[in-house]
Amino acid sequence: MHKVKPMIPLLADAIEAHGGLHQWKTHNHLEATIRCGGDLWALKGIEQDQTPRTIRIDLHRESASIAPFGRPGQRMDFTPGHIALVTEDERVIAERNSPRASFAQHDMRTHWDPLHRGYFNGYALWTCLTTPFLLAMEGFQIREIEPWCEGSEIWRGLRATFPAAIASHSTEQDFYFGPDMLIRRHDYHVEIAGNFSAAQYISELVSIDGIKIPTRRRVYLRDENLMPMLDTLMVSIDLSGFRFG
User: Fold this and answer.
1) CATH number (domain holding residue 179)
2) pLDDT for the residue 48
3) What's the pTM?
4) Cα–Cα distance, 80 to 123 (Å, whole number)
């Protein structure tokens, strides 16, 4: 378990609004049903369907599994340093150590193999499902940034510098919270795909065992003025069936 460190007020308020760190720490794992879509998969040479899949993550260290993955009867196991495709009888079909190195020289249109896809899915969904609580882990550097105006609302912003041990989209990422301190938006660069800029809009939170979790995420390309390009939906994520363990 990572140590709890002093938090700036905005992060402390956001974590409390999502259920509080004490309640979060009473759980070790989270399972959910996911459905994904968007334009990114075709750019990566991947046929993405709307088949529901189950993701299971460790809440307090970066680890995830997704099943079925690729075909029925096999799953993907992810940690930052290792990715593997595994059958139901625990036979390893394919694996890769130091998986991030395999993305060297990739751009937005470079095709991915199943292990590339598994690495991206693993870190991206782990980040989604642990926000904002992961920002209280040891090694994160957090500061408040300029707020974002969205319609009639002002969303306060946090910039997080991720520690090297955590695999994620980019070293620096921005998180925006509404007047109720619930997460509204998440901005980053996708380093493993040419470093393109993304704005992820987050909505439709549900309360599960006292923790508020978003069920809808939509990721758009982002321009140099931080505006989302709403005609370019890169990734859609719909989540349901949450189960803490």
Assistant:
1) 2.50.20.10
2) 77
3) 0.95
4) 8
End-to-end Cα distance, the chain? 16
Tell me, yes or no, whether 3 lies in a domain: no
Residue 231 within a domain: yes
Number of H helices, E strands in the chain: 4, 13
- Return the DSSP state at 163: P
Count: domains in the chain: 1
Mean pLDDT to the nearest integer, 228-236: 96
In a domain, 2, yes or no: no
Q: 């139901």: which residue's tokens?
A: 88
Residue whose structure tokens are 């890169």: 234
Distance in angstroms (rounded) separating the CA atoms of residues 29 and 52:
19
Residue 215, SS3? strand
User: What is the band of 2 on the pLDDT scale with cuts at 50, 70, 90?
Assistant: very low
pLDDT at position 1 is: 44
